[in-house]
């Protein structure tokens, strides 16, 4: 989930796609798959759009669309809107990038290739909620140039309830295969992570007070983590048998500052709590708040 960039590879119209960011994952306790572990990905499981029908891939172009680089993961939140991390669409000085610099592959559990460019959705508008002055508001909504048909992908609903340390939550995205690697997984990965109420959450991020505010904290003591390139991707919990959006992957750091690894063991991670921004998201999309949240049956 961490925002630190690694080496950039380009998706040229005549070539293969690779990445600017990546991430790592871990075995989870969602009991609906029975899928075996794939050791080539750090503590991760291959998953699909049957579990993540809203998954989106954000690509950036700096030359008008001749070449694209993978930027971040995202989630379809409305038929014409994708939610991701705000830092994915801002320069380092927190000025927003032009909407025309981005394209999205939506509803695919396989990392896009050059053959998929023709199916990209263009971004027409980018909406943020105070990220320029408040880093905890690391959330952006991207408006697409056309609606996504239900046969392609279906929007995720927001989890509106209290987030506790006992809530099983899962992250998903396209990740690096090894901590010392820059290679992305070519398939969507998922992993169980844990919610933490530790005082260390505030020690490492003064914007965190508790998990009922704008941020959710996770301390990774067993290697289960999101990592580079996972930024903007979904943190989910199951509700009524469906995965609902609990958070958006933001950033993290190793709690041992002498350790260069920013993912896996002994790291602390932060996710933007989706419910904290649900009313803003509904207003941005011009819909009623009740249509973007998932209530218990």
Automatic annotation (TrEMBL):
Gene3D superfamilies membership: Trypsin-like serine proteases (2.40.10.10)
GO terms assigned for molecular function: kinase activity; serine-type endopeptidase activity
Top-rank taxon, per record: Eukaryota
Keyword Transferase: yes
Entries under CDD domains matching the protein: Tryp_SPc (cd00190)
Predominant place of localization: secreted
Any Pfam family hit: Trypsin
Keywords linked to the UniProt accession: Disulfide bond, Hydrolase, Kinase, Protease, Secreted, Serine protease, Signal, Transferase
PROSITE patterns in UniProt: TRYPSIN_DOM, TRYPSIN_HIS, TRYPSIN_SER
Domain Peptidase S1, chain residue ranges per copy: 41-286
UniProt cross-references to InterPro entries, sorted A to Z: Peptidase_S1_PA, Peptidase_S1_PA_chymotrypsin, Peptidase_S1A, Serine_Proteases_S1, Trypsin_dom, TRYPSIN_HIS, TRYPSIN_SER
Protein's GO biological process: proteolysis
Subcellular location: Secreted
One cellular component term from this protein's GO annotations in UniProt: extracellular space
Protein's name in the database: Urokinase-type plasminogen activator
High-level lineage: Eukaryota, Fungi, Fungi incertae sedis, Zoopagomycota, Kickxellomycotina
């Amino acid at each position: 989930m961490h925002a630190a960039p690694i080496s950039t590879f380009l998706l040229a119209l005549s070539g293969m796609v690779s990445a600017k960011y990546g991430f790592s994952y871990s075995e989870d306790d969602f009991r609906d798959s029975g899928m075996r572990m794939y050791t080539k990905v750090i503590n991760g499981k291959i998953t699909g759009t049957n579990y993540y029908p809203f998954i989106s891939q954000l690509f950036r172009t700096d030359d008008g669309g001749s070449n694209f680089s993978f930027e971040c993961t995202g989630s379809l939140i409305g038929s014409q809107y994708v939610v991701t991390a705000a830092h994915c669409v801002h320069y380092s000085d927190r000025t927003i990038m032009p909407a025309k610099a981005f394209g999205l592959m939506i509803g695919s559990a396989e990392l896009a290739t050059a053959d998929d460019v023709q199916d990209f959705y263009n971004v027409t508008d980018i909406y943020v909620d105070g990220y320029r002055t408040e880093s905890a508001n690391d959330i952006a909504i991207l408006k697409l140039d056309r609606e996504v048909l239900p046969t392609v992908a279906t929007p995720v609903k927001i989890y509106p309830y209290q987030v506790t340390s006992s809530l099983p939550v899962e992250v998903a995205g396209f990740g690096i295969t090894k901590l010392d690697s820059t290679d992305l997984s070519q398939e969507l990965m998922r992993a169980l992570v844990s919610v933490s109420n530790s005082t260390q959450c505030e020690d490492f991020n003064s914007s965190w007070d508790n998990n009922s505010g704008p941020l959710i904290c996770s301390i990774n003591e067993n290697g289960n983590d999101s990592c580079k390139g996972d930024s903007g991707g979904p943190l989910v919990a199951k509700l009524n048998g469906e995965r609902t959006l609990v958070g958006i992957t933001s950033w993290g750091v190793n709690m041992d500052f002498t350790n260069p690894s920013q993912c896996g063991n002994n790291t602390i991670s932060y996710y933007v709590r989706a419910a904290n921004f649900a009313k803003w998201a509904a207003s941005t999309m011009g819909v009623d708040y009740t249509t973007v949240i998932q209530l218990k049956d």
